[in-house]
Design brief:
single chain, Endonuclease III, domain 1
């Protein structure tokens, strides 16, 4: 079977895209500079989002010179409708700086009257321009034949088998302008850009899969995968005991029931076993000394009764023993006067 030509392949793409999208024509009264700035907003974005972002710039700022000196953060807020407003604001600000440094003005209408080749080379030298923005200006403002393609469009064409991986990385579509005539260039470019914008927004959308399969039934094997393959798990780490053969690094044994477990030291190692201290019996405090003239009682002896207390002997010596009771005869004798 003879291989299908590029012209027939892109003709099939055009036919399928017309069933799902409507062509969008660029405004005819838009100046060349505004076409260039709109292309900075349209890259990797849908037409309605790009128009909203461009209108936000026109109504928010006084002129393009004010936009040029405005920070990217403020421009991003005015272009919040885009999927990546910061990247678009960066491209637009750099383009305004490049044009102003080249011409000291923002009027590019004289480029319509010059030859297309030198004008394209001049646009490519401007800082901030891309292949998409240059091709869009050539087609929309300079009446040339160029079909702008961005990253989403390149990825979609790679899925349907019209581009190789090397072509996608290079950002080129070989033979596209020869396969699509100039008379159909504006319509085909707008339909193809809508496909690329949908692919950049959500490559897993069911309607997008339907469109891509209608273009190429064998595209199912080239669809992007939702999940990447899981990386190989590393080998399990050995146990802590195998890493530290030293007995001091091993965890302490569980404490015996009823004993409080000692907390590890600040360095992370358990406390070393301390030698046991000898147990000494509790010392009993000596008895307090009794006051002078009084006898202290000891636990071994019981203090005598009051009437049994021995009388002191003459001269302060101790008594020989307890006094005997006197007899009745002695008592009477003592009472009789001599």
């Amino acid at each position: 079977m003879a291989p299908v030509s590029r012209t027939a392949q892109f003709a099939k793409v055009h036919k399928v895209l017309k069933k799902y999208y409507k062509p969008v024509a660029p405004p005819a009264d838009r100046p060349v500079l505004e076409h260039l700035l709109f292309a900075c907003c349209l890259e990797d974005a849908r037409y309605d989002a790009a128009e909203e972002a461009f209108a936000g710039l026109v109504h928010t700022f006084f002129d393009w010179n004010e936009v040029r000196v405005t920070s990217i953060s403020e421009l991003s807020e005015a272009m919040a409708a885009l999927p990546d407003p910061r990247a678009a604001a960066n491209r637009l600000k750099r383009v305004l700086h490049g044009v102003f440094e080249e011409l000291y003005s923002f009027d590019l209408e004289d480029k319509r009257k010059k030859n297309l080749g030198p004008t394209v080379k001049w646009l490519e030298r401007i800082d901030g321009t891309t292949r998409f923005s240059v091709a869009y200006v050539v087609q929309a403002a300079l009446a040339g034949h160029a079909i702008p393609v961005d990253a989403g469009t390149l990825a979609a064409l790679g899925v349907v088998g019209l581009l190789s991986d090397a072509d996608v990385e290079a950002g080129e579509v070989p033979g596209l302008e020869r396969a699509v005539t100039k008379s159909r260039g504006v319509e085909f470019a707008s339909l193809l850009h809508q496909l690329g914008a949908d692919f950049a927004a959500n490559p897993f959308a069911p309607q997008l899969r339907e469109i891509l399969l209608a273009i190429d039934p064998d595209a199912a094997g080239r669809f992007p995968q939702r999940r990447l393959p899981r990386p190989a798990q590393p080998a399990a780490a050995p146990q802590a005991a195998a890493k530290t053969p030293d007995a001091r690094a091993a965890p302490p044994p569980p404490a015996a029931p009823g004993r409080k477990k000692k907390a590890p030291a600040a360095g992370g190692e358990p406390h070393a076993a301390e030698p046991k201290k000898p147990v000494t019996p509790p010392q009993v405090a000596p008895p307090k000394a009794a006051p002078a003239g009084k006898r202290s009682a000891t636990p071994a002896e019981t203090p005598p009764e009051k009437h049994d207390k021995p009388a002191a002997a003459p001269g302060g010596g101790p008594a020989a023993g307890p006094a005997k009771p006197a007899s009745s005869t002695e008592t009477l004798a003592k009472r009789k006067p001599r």
